Amino acid sequence: DCSGDPGEQERHVHFLHYCEVMTALKVLGVHGNFVLKLFTMFEHETVSLMFLLNCLFLGVHVFKPCASKSGNSEVYVVCLDYRGYDTVPEVLRKTLMLPYGDGHGESVMFPLDAVSCDFVRQVEDCARLFMNWQRDHINSNVEMFRTEDEDVLCQIRNRKESVAGGYVRKFRIPKGINKRRRLMRSGASRFVHEEEPCSVALPELTIKTGRAVSVVYKSEFGHVTPKIGGDDLIFAAIKSNLPDTYASITGACFSPDDPQHVMQREFLSLVRKCLDCSCDIVIYGVALLTRFLVGVVYILASGFESFVTYESGAILFSKRRDSIDRIKGCFDEISQVYASLKGDKFPVDILEVVDKGILKRGHFYKAISEY
């Protein structure tokens, strides 16, 4: 990882590149081909590596594919027609690893007088060519970002639309993609996309039990993959919408190693504790993937005048109703069922507390799906 020192990327990764080359030389058959990803080619380690490849392959070419971002330094060395490891002199095989005995060698692989000046010049010209292309593209990007020239901006928009249109036509992408099948939903460009506030009535409990769920692979209420950013980023995005005092349940309250049924019991317990506080409640960073969890949220929502969901992964329950004691009673009843559960052959858990037909109805289902 060279993210902390990007200016020295070549120096940080040269030993990795060396190991990749040595592995290829030992496993590749005669007349085989090899592709190596490099970055810049200014250090002596890279020059030595390129010299070694030129000695063992009949053709060595450096490419920058069109799919590779022009603003980065990655290039691909394509080595053709391997001569074979047997062509490496025995004395050279023993000395190749000496500069990297511990992975941090300071000596060079080949002495300078062993590498022709013409070869060094070719590597230098190659490195300078790709460096200039990268520099020019970065400068162009900076200029485009800063420009206020309407003609230039119009050209950029037209080019984007042309590329996008060509992609849609080539791959026959339908214009009207179902909302639940989109990778990016409306409002996804903003981290916080607030749905309209809505409310629900207190439902009848329909408690169903069955074999406990350990892992959720697919959910009818949303994506199994977690929201990007984590609890801190979600909170930073919604904190301006929160009241002065509130109780919260976050993803950090649960251990990622716990089975799903353990997490669900803990969630019920935390919701019940939050109801003892006379304030609004916010839930964020919690994956609501099962009928049990969504049912608990539905019951909780019925105790407030409104609740709002955010695409960032948060739900805010506001303005308590007088029926809050009835809500507590529902959760206490669920807890009593939990206390009576016994499983002889496998763990038993509560799978459902509200009829699924109610959960998948109207604004509530839409709000949970957007959560």
From TrEMBL:
Q: Which GO terms describe its molecular function?
A: methyltransferase cap1 activity; methyltransferase cap2 activity
Catalytic center residues: K37 (proton acceptor)
Classification from the root reads: Eukaryota, Metazoa, Ecdysozoa, Arthropoda, Hexapoda
Tell me which Gene Ontology terms the entry assigns under biological process: 7-methylguanosine mRNA capping; methylation
Record-linked Pfam families: FtsJ (PF01728)
Keywords assigned by UniProt? Membrane, Methyltransferase, S-adenosyl-L-methionine, Transferase, Transmembrane, Transmembrane helix
Gene3D superfamilies attached to this UniProt entry: 3.40.50.12760
Name the UniProt record assigns to this protein: Cap-specific mRNA (nucleoside-2'-O-)-methyltransferase 2
| UniProt-listed Enzyme Commission number(s) | 2.1.1.296
This entry carries the following GO cellular component terms, namely: cytoplasm; nucleus
Question: PANTHER family annotated for this entry?
Answer: CAP-SPECIFIC MRNA (NUCLEOSIDE-2'-O-)-METHYLTRANSFERASE 1-RELATED (PTHR16121), CAP-SPECIFIC MRNA (NUCLEOSIDE-2'-O-)-METHYLTRANSFERASE 2 (PTHR16121:SF2)
EC top class named in words: transferase
Catalysed transformations (reactions): a 5'-end (N(7)-methyl 5'-triphosphoguanosine)-(2'-O-methyl-ribonucleoside)-(ribonucleotide) in mRNA + S-adenosyl-L-methionine = a 5'-end (N(7)-methyl 5'-triphosphoguanosine)-(2'-O-methyl-ribonucleoside)-(2'-O-methyl-ribonucleotide) in mRNA + S-adenosyl-L-homocysteine + H(+)
Task: Tell me where in this chain the Adrift-type SAM-dependent 2'-O-MTase domain is found.
Answer: 1-84
Residues engaged in binding S-adenosyl-L-methionine: D1
Q: Which InterPro entries match?
A: Adrift-typ_MeTrfase, mRNA_Cap_2O-Ribose_MeTrfase, RNA_MeTrfase_FtsJ_dom, SAM-dependent_MTases_sf
